[in-house]
Amino acid sequence: MKDIAAKLYNHILNPPADAELARAREMAGSQLPTIWLLGKTGAGKTSIVRQLTGHSRAEIGNGFQPCTSNSSRYDYPPEHPVVRFLDTRGLGEASYDADEDLRLLGEGSHALFVVLRLRDAERSATLQALTQIRRHARHIQPGHIAVIHTAVLEVTDAHDRQRAVAAAQQAVEQAWGGPVAHCEVDFPEPERGDEYPDTVGAEELAGLIAAKVPELRLWLREQAGAAGARSSFRRLSGEILWYAGAAAASDAIPLVGLVSVPAVQGKMLHSLAQKYGVSWSRRNVSEFVSALGTLFTLRYLVSLGGRQLGKLIPGFGQLAGSAFAASVSYASTYALGRAACSYLYHKQADIPLDDGSIRQVYQRAMKEGRDARRQPRD
Predict the structure, then answer these.
(1) In Å, what is the CA distance from 119 to each residue of 40, 167, 195, 320?
(2) Which segments does the entry list as coiled coil (predicted)?
(3) Which end of the chain has fewer CB within 10 Å, C or N?
């Protein structure tokens, strides 16, 4: 226990150099879970991003950066991104090249969301692009596509609305060649003159995204918010999820995780303590490790070495071994950050720790992290 506390303290006291952290940042950036929004200008893509992030229209507009001839990307949050929004424009132009966007997606977790404004009957450009994507897609599996019908309250009659959704769905499914999941949303924006105050489909949208890109389940849940220590954690959840993604990305490479994962975790704890205004003294680190319990100590030692060995086994290491290592590093880093937030919150507020409370937070978060990485996407 003391040895683990000493190692953890050393990583916190001596966080990784800029070059090492930059490498982790590059690895994490190359594997960001991506929400690909395919739709015409005015279809409601910005409103969807706004609903999910809470950013203003201006912030979102300034945040999108060109990345291919026809697409722009928006990484959120900017400092420690956990999700990438890919917005494809120029639909209907003869120069549109789906392969360019598909190459950008790479092998990371992603899903294609076709965005259709319900009252807009002119969908030919979007459907043509979808057909091209279907023909050229190498990484878009049947279960990785969905339709978001936007501005549904513009069609005021419920029966007419139902018929309009059915017609749009039929057109998309014909273009894609099979059934496609969907949801109906309406996110009014008063500054644009929307008079109706209701928000429609927010929970359904979050559920649809979580089903298609399960790595975003934890982020979507934390976006909902809560009170007390969990509210404090919510403010930092994006940063913790970024560190979890960085640890997972680096641990997918044999032996790299032995060095980078503890360093990334140490940097995370160092950063979290600064946010809470609490210093990691040797006493605090020892108390934190003790609060995590013996199971954490054993898991920290055994799983790190064991999963590195698994990545080196011929035939197994390149697939299952690397995937397992990345999954464990993601879950353990998320759980460590979640437990640290609870510990630091109690220290900051001078609230005595309940016996076993930090251990319970860690174990629950560990399960949540594993579930997020294991859930099938098809």
Answers:
(1) 13, 11, 17, 47
(2) none
(3) C
Q: Which two tokens stand for residue 36?
A: 């690909």
As given in the structure block, the two tokens for residue 161 are: 């609305």
3-state secondary structure at position 261 = helix
DSSP character string of 277-335: T----HHHHHHHHHHH-HHHHHHHHHHHHHHHHHHHSTTTIIIIIHHHHHHHHHHHHHH
Six-digit token pair at 127? 């459907």
CA distance 170 to 243: 41
Do 368 and 339 meet the contact criterion of CB atoms below 8 Å apart?
A: no
**Nearest-angstrom CA–CA distance, 129 and 133:** 6
Distance CA 95, CA 97 (A): 6
The SS3 assignment for 360 reads helix
Backbone angles phi, psi at 200, to 5 degrees: -115, 130
Tens of each residue's pLDDT in the chain, 378 residues: 556 566 666 656 555 555 555 666 666 666 788 899 999 888 999 999 999 988 888 888 888 988 877 789 999 988 888 899 999 876 655 567 777 777 776 556 688 999 999 999 999 989 988 988 888 776 677 788 999 999 999 999 999 999 999 999 999 999 999 999 999 999 987 555 555 556 899 999 999 999 998 888 888 877 665 444 555 666 788 889 999 988 888 765 544 444 578 888 888 998 999 999 998 888 898 899 888 887 676 556 544 544 443 443 344 344 444 566 778 888 989 999 999 999 998 898 888 888 789 999 999 999 998 888 765 444
Among 113, 72, 106, 65, residue whose Cα is nearest residue 89: 72
Comparing CA positions, the residue from 208, 199, 195 lying closest to residue 150 is: 199
Main-chain dihedrals φ then ψ at residue 323, nearest 5 degrees = -65, -40
CA distances from 21 to 74, 78, 247, 265, 325 (A): 21, 16, 10, 11, 19
- Torsion over CA of 180, 186, 191 and 192, rounded to 10 degrees? 60
The CATH number of 34-212 is 3.40.50.300
Considering only CA atoms, give the Rg of the chain: 22
Antiparallel, parallel or unpaired: β 83-88 and 34-38: parallel
Number of residues written out for the chain: 378
